[in-house]
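Input record (one chain):
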Amino acid sequence: MEFKGTKGELKIIGEPYQDETYDPPTEYHGAFEIKNQQGEIFSQVHAYSFWGITFERAEANAKLIAAAPELLEALNGLLKVVGGFQLSTWEEELSDMANKAINKALK
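The corresponding structure, as predicted from the sequence alone:
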């Protein structure tokens, strides 16, 4: 299976923007922008007080999304390396978990 999504490095650019129009001021809405190498917006991860999603949680989610293509590539590479070796039960379980994660991303 081949990854058909955006290729290349993704980065969180700048600080999250915050929508200042919320009233009362204790409520918030903002987002982290994830951009590709050409500077195009790939995705946004939003923080909403209404849903209990803090900026800290949104930033952690944005970092995971930005790292996903590299994580997928690394995981595929590791599975190719260990593919020819005899694996312990624990290593087999990890290999199965890795394959399930790859299938989740690619199917």
